[in-house]
Records
---
Amino acid sequence: MTATDESVQDLPPSAKLVLKVLEYNGGLTQKQIVENSRLSQRTVRDALDRLQEVDVVEKDIYIPDARQNLYRLSLEDDDTESETEEAVSEALAE
């Protein structure tokens, strides 16, 4: 189980869905998340707040329209980097 899995384990299903939408699509605005997840705007806003509280999602300025925010997954910590390096090493060994 990764650090991300542990931090979102107790979150509601809506927050987990928003997390999966961001994992699949990359950075999105709140409106785009609503469209992709088919959740209400209020539910998405609450889910994003919860995901930001556990440092899984970060908010940036959306360059094409500064009135909106761009939500994306937070950069992973060193543990994930070492896991990635191990996976690459194992793939090269085969």
---
Amino acid sequence: MDITLMVALVISLALFFDFTNGFHDTANAMATPIATGAIKPKTAVALAAVLNLVGAFLSTEVAKTVSGGIIREGSGGIQITPDIIFAGLMGAVLWNMITWLKGLPSSSSHALFGGLIGAAIAGIGFHSVNLETLLQKVILPAVFAPVIAGLVAYACTRIAYALTSRHDPETGSKLTQKRGGFRTGQIFTSSLVALAHGTNDAQKTMGIITLVLISAGTQEPGSGPQLWVIAACALAIAIGTYAGGWRIIRTMGAGLTEVKPAQGFAAESSTASAILASSHLGFALSTTQVASGSVIGSGMGRRGTTVRWGMVGRIALGWLFTLPAAGIVGALTALLVKTGIAGVVIAAVAGTGAVLYMFLVSRKSEVGHHNAVEVEEAGQAVRWAKKKALARARAAERAKNNPKDPQR
């Protein structure tokens, strides 16, 4: 196949992967504020889309890790070819679609790395993979980042509840807790998570497109992503984010634990901190794993909350199988495309058919903004009412609860 045509095909598939990454990972930022009623569902995904777009322009460190770190390329290394990158992307896209259909918040990042590594090993050999970079910037962050984020979220949740606890000074009995302010805070923390997600996850597709341009000889080895690559990837992930990914929002917002405003605030703060730190260091972090770890940690930090460990186990299995499963699909596709143009066509047609089939299956049990998470008065929890209106509401509430109150 003509090299220009192959490069165009790979770039198109990479941007589609970026789109699936967007709707797969919307839940990382917006599942908890939707679950607590801080933001209306459709408003939440629109806000996340805009901030993902902005975040994609803020850093390129992760893109450089992907384009010139994990797979050896260029002078003195292994010259990876566009067809191998195509095979790796196919593994990543199919795994993303499978886990989305099942509502599992798996890692789009690890699906990408798994597919790329599997394809490189099958198409070139084990020596094409930079194991040191893989260990330092992918494997170790995958192990430690969700644990650290979970511990931070646990501590923040305990502190938040301790600082806002209210008791009657005379009797010592527990009073009604007023933690509605955390809902307002969630608007800002969830926005920060969405912005941070753009600085990390959008970079991975930029790195892949940069890698294929280098492999085709149209860009110098070791150089970063071009402006048009940054803009295209930012737009693709933003559109994907706006698509919603409601199945995974359901799992993150209600499947792991019952989320209250203080918990959501703590989880989002720890998630954003971990992602921004990793983006600065060039770690190709799984934002999904960090967000899931934070939600679990916040659930453990609130007394009386039950963490649904069965669902946690399912998600953990998804994490465990992501790298090898995507790698196997990437390797099989690499073996197919090595046969020539017929193999590339068969792989493209089979992949497209699989994606369409999973989409049609998903329509049989549709999950959307109307039924992803059941929240009473969703989007109305944060109210910017005037002081007089608040005073009238409180007076009416007192009158209702104390009919013989002399102040009536």
---
Amino acid sequence: MNRKYLVDTETHEYLCIALKKGMDWVPNNQTVLPGFMSTRTPETELDSVLISGEFNDNVFFEKWIRNGTNVLFQY
């Protein structure tokens, strides 16, 4: 399953914000998103530590979990 994540590279927290079901994206964790974003620098600013991306489960865990991002914020 593909998911869209926001990852804070400084605190190593991440949030799954959407799930792909068929051809459509379904929002996920929308109640938590404002609180998550309010404590971080927006992606559009130069000193941002947030990155976003679309990953399938195996690729995300291989790239972020095994390589140092090991704090689960909300899945």
